[in-house]
Amino acid sequence: MADEQQHAWWQSGVIYQIYPRSFADSDGDGVGDLAGIEARLDHVASLGVDAIWLSPVFPSPMADFGYDVADYCAIDPLFGDLPAFDRLLAAAHARGLKLLLDYVPNHSSDQHPWFVESRSSRTNAKRDWYIWRDPALDGGPPNNWISDFGGPAWEWDEPTGQFYLHAFLPQQPDLNWRNPQMKAAMLNVLRFWLDRGVDGFRIDVLWHIVKAEALPDNPPNPAWTRAQTERDRLIQRHSTDQPEAHALSAEFRALAEQYTGATGRERVLIGEIFLPNERLARWYGPPERPQVHLPFNFQLIENEWDAATLARVVADYLASLPPHGWPNWVLGSHDAPRIAARIGGAQARVAMMLLLTLRGTPTLYQGDELAIGHVPIPPDRIRDPQHHRQPHLDIGRDRSRTPMPWNSSPHAGFSTAEPWLPLNRDWPTRNVATQAQDPASMLALTHALLALRRAEPALSVGAIQLLDAPAGLLAYQRTHGTRQLTILLNLTAQGIDTEWRGTPLLSTLVGPPQPGTLRANEGIVLA
Ligand code: GLC
Ligand code: MG
Protein backbone atom coordinates (compact mmCIF):
# COMPACT_ATOMS: atom_id res chain seq x y z
CA MET A 1 0.00 0.00 0.00
CA ALA A 2 1.22 3.47 -0.89
CA ASP A 3 0.49 4.68 2.63
CA GLU A 4 3.11 2.36 4.10
CA GLN A 5 5.93 3.72 1.97
CA GLN A 6 8.46 6.33 2.95
CA HIS A 7 7.25 9.78 2.03
CA ALA A 8 9.14 12.84 0.90
CA TRP A 9 8.71 16.16 2.69
CA TRP A 10 6.57 17.54 -0.11
CA GLN A 11 4.17 14.64 0.33
CA SER A 12 3.78 14.57 4.11
CA GLY A 13 4.33 18.31 4.56
CA VAL A 14 2.25 21.46 4.31
CA ILE A 15 3.07 24.43 2.08
CA TYR A 16 2.42 28.01 3.18
CA GLN A 17 2.16 30.71 0.51
CA ILE A 18 3.62 34.10 1.31
CA TYR A 19 2.66 37.09 -0.82
CA PRO A 20 5.76 39.20 -0.11
CA ARG A 21 4.20 42.62 -0.72
CA SER A 22 1.74 41.93 2.07
CA PHE A 23 3.50 39.84 4.70
CA ALA A 24 5.62 42.26 6.72
CA ASP A 25 7.30 45.56 5.92
CA SER A 26 10.70 46.14 7.55
CA ASP A 27 11.65 49.49 6.03
CA GLY A 28 8.54 51.59 6.43
CA ASP A 29 7.58 52.01 2.77
CA GLY A 30 4.21 50.36 3.19
CA VAL A 31 5.20 47.33 1.11
CA GLY A 32 6.34 44.02 2.57
CA ASP A 33 9.90 42.85 1.98
CA LEU A 34 12.35 40.00 2.58
CA ALA A 35 13.69 41.34 5.88
CA GLY A 36 10.08 41.66 7.02
CA ILE A 37 9.46 38.02 6.20
CA GLU A 38 12.63 36.99 8.00
CA ALA A 39 11.54 38.91 11.10
CA ARG A 40 8.20 37.07 11.07
CA LEU A 41 9.49 33.59 10.26
CA ASP A 42 8.77 32.36 13.75
CA HIS A 43 5.07 32.76 13.07
CA VAL A 44 5.39 30.45 10.07
CA ALA A 45 7.61 27.96 11.86
CA SER A 46 5.44 27.85 14.97
CA LEU A 47 2.31 27.31 12.89
CA GLY A 48 3.81 23.95 12.01
CA VAL A 49 4.03 24.11 8.22
CA ASP A 50 6.95 22.60 6.32
CA ALA A 51 7.64 24.87 3.37
CA ILE A 52 7.15 28.41 2.20
CA TRP A 53 6.35 29.38 -1.36
CA LEU A 54 7.21 33.01 -2.03
CA SER A 55 5.37 34.83 -4.80
CA PRO A 56 7.86 36.69 -7.07
CA VAL A 57 10.47 38.94 -5.47
CA PHE A 58 12.49 39.66 -8.63
CA PRO A 59 13.09 43.08 -10.19
CA SER A 60 9.83 44.12 -11.78
CA PRO A 61 7.98 47.23 -12.93
CA MET A 62 5.08 45.65 -10.95
CA ALA A 63 2.54 45.95 -13.74
CA ASP A 64 1.28 42.57 -12.44
CA PHE A 65 2.89 42.92 -9.00
CA GLY A 66 5.99 40.87 -9.69
CA TYR A 67 4.59 38.42 -12.24
CA ASP A 68 6.23 40.69 -14.82
CA VAL A 69 9.89 39.87 -14.24
CA ALA A 70 12.60 42.22 -15.54
CA ASP A 71 15.55 40.17 -14.21
CA TYR A 72 15.15 36.53 -13.19
CA CYS A 73 18.39 36.39 -11.20
CA ALA A 74 18.12 39.31 -8.80
CA ILE A 75 15.86 40.76 -6.11
CA ASP A 76 13.77 43.89 -6.57
CA PRO A 77 15.11 46.71 -4.33
CA LEU A 78 11.57 47.05 -2.99
CA PHE A 79 12.02 43.61 -1.40
CA GLY A 80 15.74 43.75 -0.59
CA ASP A 81 18.78 42.31 -2.34
CA LEU A 82 20.50 38.97 -2.86
CA PRO A 83 22.22 39.03 0.56
CA ALA A 84 18.80 39.64 2.15
CA PHE A 85 17.47 36.68 0.20
CA ASP A 86 20.36 34.49 1.33
CA ARG A 87 19.70 35.51 4.93
CA LEU A 88 16.02 34.63 4.58
CA LEU A 89 16.85 31.26 3.04
CA ALA A 90 19.32 30.48 5.82
CA ALA A 91 16.84 31.59 8.47
CA ALA A 92 14.13 29.39 6.94
CA HIS A 93 16.43 26.38 6.76
CA ALA A 94 17.57 26.99 10.34
CA ARG A 95 13.93 26.57 11.37
CA GLY A 96 13.47 23.42 9.31
CA LEU A 97 11.43 25.27 6.68
CA LYS A 98 11.92 24.69 2.95
CA LEU A 99 11.73 27.66 0.61
CA LEU A 100 10.22 27.59 -2.87
CA LEU A 101 10.47 30.45 -5.32
CA ASP A 102 8.02 31.46 -8.03
CA TYR A 103 9.37 30.74 -11.53
CA VAL A 104 7.58 32.73 -14.24
CA PRO A 105 8.50 31.07 -17.55
CA ASN A 106 5.56 32.01 -19.76
CA HIS A 107 6.38 35.69 -20.00
CA SER A 108 8.83 38.31 -18.85
CA SER A 109 8.30 41.99 -18.29
CA ASP A 110 8.39 44.22 -21.37
CA GLN A 111 11.19 45.98 -19.46
CA HIS A 112 13.34 42.84 -19.35
CA PRO A 113 16.55 43.56 -21.32
CA TRP A 114 15.74 40.51 -23.45
CA PHE A 115 12.50 42.07 -24.62
CA VAL A 116 14.00 45.53 -24.97
CA GLU A 117 16.50 43.97 -27.39
CA SER A 118 13.89 41.79 -29.04
CA ARG A 119 11.67 44.73 -29.91
CA SER A 120 14.57 46.91 -31.06
CA SER A 121 14.53 45.48 -34.60
CA ARG A 122 13.29 42.57 -36.65
CA THR A 123 16.83 41.35 -37.11
CA ASN A 124 17.93 41.55 -33.49
CA ALA A 125 19.45 38.29 -32.23
CA LYS A 126 16.77 38.10 -29.52
CA ARG A 127 13.85 38.85 -31.86
CA ASP A 128 12.88 35.18 -31.77
CA TRP A 129 13.05 34.99 -27.95
CA TYR A 130 9.47 36.30 -27.98
CA ILE A 131 6.54 35.56 -30.27
CA TRP A 132 6.39 38.11 -33.06
CA ARG A 133 4.10 37.87 -36.08
CA ASP A 134 3.02 39.94 -39.04
CA PRO A 135 -0.52 41.30 -39.04
CA ALA A 136 -3.32 39.26 -40.59
CA LEU A 137 -4.33 40.17 -44.15
CA ASP A 138 -6.82 42.73 -42.83
CA GLY A 139 -4.06 44.39 -40.81
CA GLY A 140 -5.46 43.08 -37.52
CA PRO A 141 -3.86 40.69 -35.00
CA PRO A 142 -2.38 37.41 -36.33
CA ASN A 143 -5.12 35.30 -34.73
CA ASN A 144 -8.18 35.56 -32.47
CA TRP A 145 -6.51 34.77 -29.14
CA ILE A 146 -7.72 36.65 -26.09
CA SER A 147 -5.58 37.71 -23.13
CA ASP A 148 -6.43 36.02 -19.82
CA PHE A 149 -6.93 39.52 -18.48
CA GLY A 150 -9.30 40.46 -21.34
CA GLY A 151 -8.69 42.15 -24.68
CA PRO A 152 -6.62 40.82 -27.57
CA ALA A 153 -3.55 38.74 -26.76
CA TRP A 154 -1.55 40.68 -29.35
CA GLU A 155 0.09 44.08 -29.07
CA TRP A 156 1.05 46.10 -32.12
CA ASP A 157 4.62 47.38 -32.24
CA GLU A 158 4.64 50.33 -34.63
CA PRO A 159 8.42 50.77 -35.07
CA THR A 160 8.98 47.20 -36.27
CA GLY A 161 5.55 46.65 -37.84
CA GLN A 162 4.69 43.40 -36.07
CA PHE A 163 2.52 42.15 -33.23
CA TYR A 164 3.84 40.37 -30.15
CA LEU A 165 1.90 37.81 -28.13
CA HIS A 166 0.95 38.34 -24.48
CA ALA A 167 -1.28 35.82 -22.71
CA PHE A 168 -1.62 38.32 -19.85
CA LEU A 169 -0.87 42.08 -19.86
CA PRO A 170 0.78 43.83 -22.82
CA GLN A 171 3.57 44.48 -20.28
CA GLN A 172 4.04 40.68 -20.07
CA PRO A 173 5.23 39.49 -23.51
CA ASP A 174 5.21 35.69 -23.91
CA LEU A 175 8.61 34.05 -24.18
CA ASN A 176 9.25 31.73 -27.13
CA TRP A 177 10.23 28.35 -25.67
CA ARG A 178 10.87 27.04 -29.19
CA ASN A 179 14.02 29.19 -29.29
CA PRO A 180 16.99 27.16 -27.99
CA GLN A 181 19.00 30.15 -26.73
CA MET A 182 16.05 31.53 -24.79
CA LYS A 183 15.37 28.10 -23.35
CA ALA A 184 18.99 27.70 -22.27
CA ALA A 185 18.91 31.10 -20.58
CA MET A 186 15.70 30.24 -18.71
CA LEU A 187 17.07 26.85 -17.60
CA ASN A 188 20.06 28.72 -16.22
CA VAL A 189 17.64 30.74 -14.11
CA LEU A 190 16.58 27.53 -12.38
CA ARG A 191 20.23 26.59 -11.83
CA PHE A 192 21.00 30.04 -10.43
CA TRP A 193 18.47 29.65 -7.61
CA LEU A 194 19.03 25.93 -7.06
CA ASP A 195 22.73 26.67 -6.66
CA ARG A 196 21.79 29.23 -4.01
CA GLY A 197 19.99 26.46 -2.16
CA VAL A 198 16.28 26.92 -2.81
CA ASP A 199 14.16 23.82 -2.37
CA GLY A 200 12.19 24.17 -5.57
CA PHE A 201 9.72 26.27 -7.48
CA ARG A 202 6.10 26.97 -7.98
CA ILE A 203 5.88 27.39 -11.75
CA ASP A 204 3.58 30.15 -12.92
CA VAL A 205 0.92 29.26 -15.56
CA LEU A 206 2.88 26.19 -16.60
CA TRP A 207 0.23 24.92 -19.00
CA HIS A 208 0.54 28.13 -21.04
CA ILE A 209 4.23 28.07 -21.84
CA VAL A 210 4.21 26.63 -25.37
CA LYS A 211 1.67 27.41 -28.11
CA ALA A 212 0.72 25.39 -31.19
CA GLU A 213 3.42 26.20 -33.70
CA ALA A 214 1.17 27.61 -36.45
CA LEU A 215 -0.79 29.71 -33.91
CA PRO A 216 -4.22 28.73 -35.30
CA ASP A 217 -7.38 30.52 -34.15
CA ASN A 218 -8.89 29.15 -30.95
CA PRO A 219 -12.43 27.74 -31.34
CA PRO A 220 -15.36 29.65 -29.83
CA ASN A 221 -16.79 28.41 -26.53
CA PRO A 222 -20.51 27.83 -27.15
CA ALA A 223 -21.24 27.88 -23.41
CA TRP A 224 -19.82 31.37 -22.85
CA THR A 225 -21.99 33.95 -21.06
CA ARG A 226 -21.38 37.61 -20.26
CA ALA A 227 -20.87 36.77 -16.61
CA GLN A 228 -17.64 34.99 -17.57
CA THR A 229 -14.32 36.58 -18.36
CA GLU A 230 -13.67 37.58 -21.93
CA ARG A 231 -10.96 34.91 -22.11
CA ASP A 232 -13.62 32.23 -21.78
CA ARG A 233 -15.27 33.26 -25.06
CA LEU A 234 -12.74 30.94 -26.69
CA ILE A 235 -11.55 27.46 -25.82
CA GLN A 236 -7.80 27.76 -25.31
CA ARG A 237 -7.11 24.71 -27.43
CA HIS A 238 -4.07 25.96 -29.31
CA SER A 239 -2.69 28.42 -26.77
CA THR A 240 -2.35 26.06 -23.79
CA ASP A 241 -1.65 22.45 -22.73
CA GLN A 242 0.56 21.59 -25.71
CA PRO A 243 2.67 18.40 -25.82
CA GLU A 244 5.81 20.54 -26.02
CA ALA A 245 4.95 22.12 -22.66
CA HIS A 246 4.78 18.66 -21.12
CA ALA A 247 8.15 17.84 -22.65
CA LEU A 248 9.61 21.00 -21.14
CA SER A 249 8.20 20.13 -17.72
CA ALA A 250 10.05 16.84 -17.95
CA GLU A 251 13.23 18.81 -18.64
CA PHE A 252 12.61 21.07 -15.64
CA ARG A 253 12.09 17.96 -13.56
CA ALA A 254 15.26 16.30 -14.80
CA LEU A 255 17.18 19.41 -13.82
CA ALA A 256 15.61 19.42 -10.35
CA GLU A 257 16.44 15.73 -9.99
CA GLN A 258 20.10 16.43 -10.77
CA TYR A 259 20.18 18.72 -7.75
CA THR A 260 18.27 16.25 -5.61
CA GLY A 261 20.75 13.56 -6.57
CA ALA A 262 23.80 15.72 -6.07
CA THR A 263 22.81 17.06 -2.66
CA GLY A 264 20.41 14.46 -1.29
CA ARG A 265 17.95 17.30 -0.64
CA GLU A 266 14.81 16.84 -2.63
CA ARG A 267 13.99 19.79 -4.91
CA VAL A 268 10.34 20.11 -5.81
CA LEU A 269 8.34 21.51 -8.69
CA ILE A 270 4.74 22.61 -8.37
CA GLY A 271 2.90 23.56 -11.53
CA GLU A 272 0.19 26.19 -11.63
CA ILE A 273 -2.23 24.54 -14.05
CA PHE A 274 -5.96 25.06 -14.50
CA LEU A 275 -7.32 21.99 -16.31
CA PRO A 276 -9.96 19.31 -15.78
CA ASN A 277 -8.84 16.17 -13.91
CA GLU A 278 -7.85 13.92 -16.81
CA ARG A 279 -5.68 16.60 -18.37
CA LEU A 280 -4.30 17.83 -15.04
CA ALA A 281 -3.17 14.30 -14.20
CA ARG A 282 -0.98 14.17 -17.30
CA TRP A 283 1.27 16.82 -15.77
CA TYR A 284 2.74 14.24 -13.41
CA GLY A 285 4.19 12.64 -16.53
CA PRO A 286 4.86 8.94 -16.85
CA PRO A 287 6.93 7.46 -13.98
CA GLU A 288 9.94 6.93 -16.22
CA ARG A 289 9.91 10.56 -17.36
CA PRO A 290 8.18 12.53 -14.62
CA GLN A 291 7.05 16.14 -14.97
CA VAL A 292 6.03 18.23 -11.96
CA HIS A 293 5.80 16.72 -8.48
CA LEU A 294 2.52 18.51 -7.81
CA PRO A 295 0.21 19.93 -10.47
CA PHE A 296 -1.78 22.37 -8.35
CA ASN A 297 -5.35 21.22 -7.70
CA PHE A 298 -7.69 24.19 -7.31
CA GLN A 299 -10.94 22.29 -7.03
CA LEU A 300 -11.74 23.32 -3.46
CA ILE A 301 -11.67 26.88 -4.77
CA GLU A 302 -13.62 26.25 -7.95
CA ASN A 303 -16.55 24.21 -6.65
CA GLU A 304 -19.70 24.91 -4.69
CA TRP A 305 -19.32 24.53 -0.94
CA ASP A 306 -21.69 21.69 -0.17
CA ALA A 307 -21.10 18.16 1.04
CA ALA A 308 -22.42 16.32 -2.00
CA THR A 309 -20.36 18.41 -4.41
CA LEU A 310 -17.19 18.12 -2.38
CA ALA A 311 -17.59 14.36 -1.90
CA ARG A 312 -17.78 14.03 -5.67
CA VAL A 313 -14.87 16.44 -6.21
CA VAL A 314 -12.64 14.53 -3.80
CA ALA A 315 -13.56 11.14 -5.24
CA ASP A 316 -13.20 12.18 -8.89
CA TYR A 317 -9.89 13.94 -8.33
CA LEU A 318 -8.32 11.05 -6.42
CA ALA A 319 -9.60 8.55 -8.98
CA SER A 320 -8.08 10.58 -11.81
CA LEU A 321 -4.53 10.41 -10.44
CA PRO A 322 -1.99 8.01 -11.90
CA PRO A 323 -0.61 5.49 -9.37
CA HIS A 324 2.55 7.56 -8.90
CA GLY A 325 0.66 10.89 -8.73
CA TRP A 326 0.61 12.40 -5.25
CA PRO A 327 -2.52 14.50 -4.58
CA ASN A 328 -2.59 18.12 -3.41
CA TRP A 329 -5.19 20.68 -2.38
CA VAL A 330 -5.28 24.47 -2.49
CA LEU A 331 -7.83 26.50 -0.54
CA GLY A 332 -6.69 30.07 -1.17
CA SER A 333 -4.12 32.15 -3.03
CA HIS A 334 -3.26 35.68 -4.06
CA ASP A 335 -5.54 35.14 -7.08
CA ALA A 336 -8.62 33.57 -5.48
CA PRO A 337 -11.25 35.13 -3.22
CA ARG A 338 -10.61 34.63 0.50
CA ILE A 339 -12.21 31.39 1.68
CA ALA A 340 -13.79 33.11 4.72
CA ALA A 341 -15.26 35.76 2.42
CA ARG A 342 -16.72 33.10 0.16
CA ILE A 343 -18.24 30.67 2.69
CA GLY A 344 -18.25 32.67 5.95
CA GLY A 345 -16.15 32.49 9.08
CA ALA A 346 -17.90 29.47 10.62
CA GLN A 347 -17.45 27.32 7.52
CA ALA A 348 -13.90 28.60 7.04
CA ARG A 349 -13.03 26.59 10.15
CA VAL A 350 -14.56 23.48 8.63
CA ALA A 351 -12.69 24.24 5.40
CA MET A 352 -9.40 24.40 7.29
CA MET A 353 -10.12 21.02 8.81
CA LEU A 354 -10.91 19.66 5.35
CA LEU A 355 -7.74 21.09 3.81
CA LEU A 356 -5.55 19.68 6.58
CA THR A 357 -7.13 16.24 6.79
CA LEU A 358 -7.53 15.30 3.12
CA ARG A 359 -5.03 12.94 1.53
CA GLY A 360 -2.50 15.09 -0.31
CA THR A 361 -0.23 18.07 0.20
CA PRO A 362 -2.15 21.14 1.39
CA THR A 363 -1.23 24.68 0.39
CA LEU A 364 -2.30 27.25 2.94
CA TYR A 365 -2.45 30.92 1.96
CA GLN A 366 -1.18 33.62 4.33
CA GLY A 367 -3.95 35.17 6.38
CA ASP A 368 -6.31 32.22 6.02
CA GLU A 369 -5.00 31.04 9.40
CA LEU A 370 -6.72 34.17 10.77
CA ALA A 371 -9.85 33.65 8.63
CA ILE A 372 -9.51 37.08 7.08
CA GLY A 373 -12.83 37.59 5.34
CA HIS A 374 -14.13 40.14 2.88
CA VAL A 375 -11.99 43.28 2.74
CA PRO A 376 -13.66 46.13 0.90
CA ILE A 377 -11.20 48.04 -1.28
CA PRO A 378 -12.21 51.66 -1.89
CA PRO A 379 -12.26 52.36 -5.65
CA ASP A 380 -9.36 54.80 -5.45
CA ARG A 381 -7.17 52.13 -3.82
CA ILE A 382 -7.77 49.33 -6.33
CA ARG A 383 -4.41 48.19 -7.70
CA ASP A 384 -5.01 44.91 -9.49
CA PRO A 385 -4.58 45.23 -13.28
CA GLN A 386 -7.01 42.38 -13.81
CA HIS A 387 -9.72 44.54 -12.27
CA HIS A 388 -8.78 47.55 -14.37
CA ARG A 389 -8.98 45.53 -17.59
CA GLN A 390 -12.44 44.11 -16.82
CA PRO A 391 -14.00 46.26 -14.07
CA HIS A 392 -17.57 45.11 -14.74
CA LEU A 393 -16.71 41.55 -13.62
CA ASP A 394 -15.72 42.57 -10.07
CA ILE A 395 -12.98 39.94 -9.98
CA GLY A 396 -10.26 42.16 -8.54
CA ARG A 397 -7.64 40.22 -6.61
CA ASP A 398 -6.65 43.00 -4.18
CA ARG A 399 -9.15 41.69 -1.62
CA SER A 400 -6.97 38.61 -1.10
CA ARG A 401 -3.72 40.56 -1.12
CA THR A 402 -4.28 42.86 1.85
CA PRO A 403 -1.51 43.07 4.47
CA MET A 404 -1.09 40.54 7.27
CA PRO A 405 -2.41 42.02 10.51
CA TRP A 406 0.19 41.15 13.16
CA ASN A 407 -1.05 42.99 16.24
CA SER A 408 -3.20 45.89 17.36
CA SER A 409 -0.52 48.59 17.05
CA PRO A 410 -0.85 51.19 14.24
CA HIS A 411 -1.10 49.64 10.76
CA ALA A 412 -1.52 46.30 12.50
CA GLY A 413 2.23 45.98 13.02
CA PHE A 414 2.56 45.34 9.29
CA SER A 415 4.38 48.61 8.62
CA THR A 416 5.11 51.98 10.17
CA ALA A 417 3.54 53.57 7.09
CA GLU A 418 0.15 53.37 5.42
CA PRO A 419 0.16 49.93 3.73
CA TRP A 420 -0.06 49.68 -0.06
CA LEU A 421 -3.50 48.07 0.28
CA PRO A 422 -5.95 48.61 3.13
CA LEU A 423 -6.06 46.22 6.07
CA ASN A 424 -9.01 44.02 6.92
CA ARG A 425 -11.44 46.29 8.77
CA ASP A 426 -11.46 44.05 11.85
CA TRP A 427 -7.66 44.07 12.17
CA PRO A 428 -7.68 45.50 15.73
CA THR A 429 -9.03 42.13 16.86
CA ARG A 430 -8.40 39.85 13.89
CA ASN A 431 -4.61 39.76 14.05
CA VAL A 432 -1.90 37.25 14.92
CA ALA A 433 -1.12 38.51 18.43
CA THR A 434 -4.76 38.68 19.52
CA GLN A 435 -5.65 35.28 18.09
CA ALA A 436 -2.55 33.75 19.65
CA GLN A 437 -4.07 34.56 23.07
CA ASP A 438 -7.45 33.07 22.21
CA PRO A 439 -7.87 29.28 22.33
CA ALA A 440 -11.08 29.63 20.30
CA SER A 441 -9.42 31.51 17.44
CA MET A 442 -8.88 30.35 13.87
CA LEU A 443 -5.16 30.60 14.52
CA ALA A 444 -5.45 28.21 17.47
CA LEU A 445 -7.52 25.81 15.37
CA THR A 446 -5.04 25.93 12.48
CA HIS A 447 -2.22 25.31 14.90
CA ALA A 448 -4.02 22.36 16.47
CA LEU A 449 -4.85 20.86 13.08
CA LEU A 450 -1.27 21.16 11.89
CA ALA A 451 0.00 19.57 15.10
CA LEU A 452 -2.49 16.71 14.77
CA ARG A 453 -1.53 16.20 11.14
CA ARG A 454 2.12 16.03 12.11
CA ALA A 455 1.44 13.60 14.95
CA GLU A 456 -0.78 11.30 12.90
CA PRO A 457 0.70 9.65 9.81
CA ALA A 458 -2.88 8.61 9.04
CA LEU A 459 -3.59 12.29 8.29
CA SER A 460 -0.38 13.22 6.53
CA VAL A 461 0.15 10.15 4.36
CA GLY A 462 -2.59 7.63 5.15
CA ALA A 463 -5.06 6.12 2.73
CA ILE A 464 -8.43 7.81 2.36
CA GLN A 465 -11.89 6.40 2.03
CA LEU A 466 -15.05 8.42 1.63
CA LEU A 467 -17.95 7.29 3.81
CA ASP A 468 -21.68 7.38 3.18
CA ALA A 469 -23.14 10.22 5.21
CA PRO A 470 -26.43 12.03 5.80
CA ALA A 471 -27.12 15.11 3.65
CA GLY A 472 -24.90 18.04 4.52
CA LEU A 473 -22.17 15.88 6.01
CA LEU A 474 -18.83 15.12 4.40
CA ALA A 475 -17.26 12.03 5.97
CA TYR A 476 -14.09 10.08 5.32
CA GLN A 477 -11.58 7.81 6.96
CA ARG A 478 -7.82 8.07 6.95
CA THR A 479 -5.83 4.92 7.63
CA HIS A 480 -2.20 4.21 8.31
CA GLY A 481 -1.21 0.74 9.50
CA THR A 482 -3.65 -0.10 12.26
CA ARG A 483 -4.46 3.52 13.01
CA GLN A 484 -7.77 4.73 11.63
CA LEU A 485 -9.21 8.22 11.98
CA THR A 486 -12.64 9.41 10.94
CA ILE A 487 -13.32 12.97 9.83
CA LEU A 488 -16.88 14.28 9.92
CA LEU A 489 -17.55 17.73 8.51
CA ASN A 490 -20.91 19.45 8.84
CA LEU A 491 -21.05 21.78 5.86
CA THR A 492 -24.33 23.32 6.98
CA ALA A 493 -25.44 25.80 9.62
CA GLN A 494 -27.81 23.25 11.20
CA GLY A 495 -27.04 20.41 13.56
CA ILE A 496 -26.98 16.96 11.93
CA ASP A 497 -27.94 13.82 13.82
CA THR A 498 -25.40 11.11 13.31
CA GLU A 499 -24.41 8.23 15.54
CA TRP A 500 -20.70 8.88 15.49
CA ARG A 501 -18.46 6.65 17.55
CA GLY A 502 -14.91 6.99 18.78
CA THR A 503 -12.76 9.42 20.67
CA PRO A 504 -12.88 13.02 19.47
CA LEU A 505 -9.35 14.31 18.92
CA LEU A 506 -10.33 17.75 17.69
CA SER A 507 -13.41 19.80 16.91
CA THR A 508 -13.70 23.04 14.95
CA LEU A 509 -16.03 24.28 17.70
CA VAL A 510 -15.32 25.19 21.27
CA GLY A 511 -16.55 22.81 23.94
CA PRO A 512 -16.68 19.01 23.79
CA PRO A 513 -18.44 17.38 20.83
CA GLN A 514 -21.92 16.10 21.62
CA PRO A 515 -22.56 12.39 21.14
CA GLY A 516 -25.23 11.62 18.56
CA THR A 517 -24.92 14.90 16.71
CA LEU A 518 -22.69 17.22 14.83
CA ARG A 519 -23.35 20.79 15.82
CA ALA A 520 -23.93 23.49 13.20
CA ASN A 521 -20.71 24.20 11.29
CA GLU A 522 -18.85 21.55 13.22
CA GLY A 523 -16.05 19.37 11.97
CA ILE A 524 -14.51 16.66 14.12
CA VAL A 525 -11.64 14.24 13.90
CA LEU A 526 -12.32 10.95 15.68
CA ALA A 527 -9.92 8.18 16.62
C1 GLC B 1 -0.52 33.41 -12.33
C2 GLC B 1 -0.34 34.23 -11.09
C3 GLC B 1 -1.11 35.51 -11.25
C4 GLC B 1 -0.55 36.25 -12.44
C5 GLC B 1 -0.57 35.39 -13.68
C6 GLC B 1 0.28 35.96 -14.77
O1 GLC B 1 -1.83 33.00 -12.49
O2 GLC B 1 -0.72 33.50 -9.96
O3 GLC B 1 -1.05 36.30 -10.10
O4 GLC B 1 -1.29 37.41 -12.67
O5 GLC B 1 -0.05 34.11 -13.44
O6 GLC B 1 1.63 35.82 -14.45
MG1 MG C 1 9.16 47.50 2.67
Small ligands present: alpha-D-glucopyranose, magnesium ion
**Average pLDDT metric:** 97
Uncertain segments: none
Helical fraction:
25-40%
The outline comes out as globular
Total count of strands: 18
CATH architecture of the largest domain: Alpha-Beta Barrel
Quickly name the level 1 CATH class of the largest domain: Alpha Beta
User: Radius of gyration in whole Å, from Cα?
Assistant: 23 Å
| Strand portion | 5-15%
Number of domains: 3
Largest sheet: 8 strands, parallel
How is this structure best described in words?
There is one protein chain. By secondary structure, the chain is of the alpha/beta class. The protein folds into 3 domains: 9-106 and 180-450, Alpha-Beta Barrel (TIM Barrel), CATH 3.20.20.80; 113-165, Oligo-1,6-glucosidase, Domain 2 (Oligo-1,6-glucosidase, domain 2, Alpha-Beta Complex); 463-526, Immunoglobulin-like, CATH 2.60.40.1180. The chain has helices spanning 9-12, 34-39, 41-47, 82-94, 113-118, 180-196, 243-263, 277-281, 299-302, 307-320, 339-343, 345-357, 385-389, 432-436, 442-455, 457-460, and strands at residues 15-18, 51-54, 98-103, 132-133, 154-157, 162-165, 200-203, 268-271, 294-295, 328-330, 361-365, 463-466, 473-480, 483-490, 496-497, 504-507, 517-518, 523-526. The protein has an 8-stranded parallel beta sheet. Strand 5 and strand 6 form a beta hairpin. Helix 6 (180-196) packs parallel to helix 7 (243-263) and helix 12 (345-357) packs parallel to helix 15 (442-455). The structure holds alpha-D-glucopyranose and magnesium ion. Magnesium ion binds at residues 25-27, 29, 31-33.
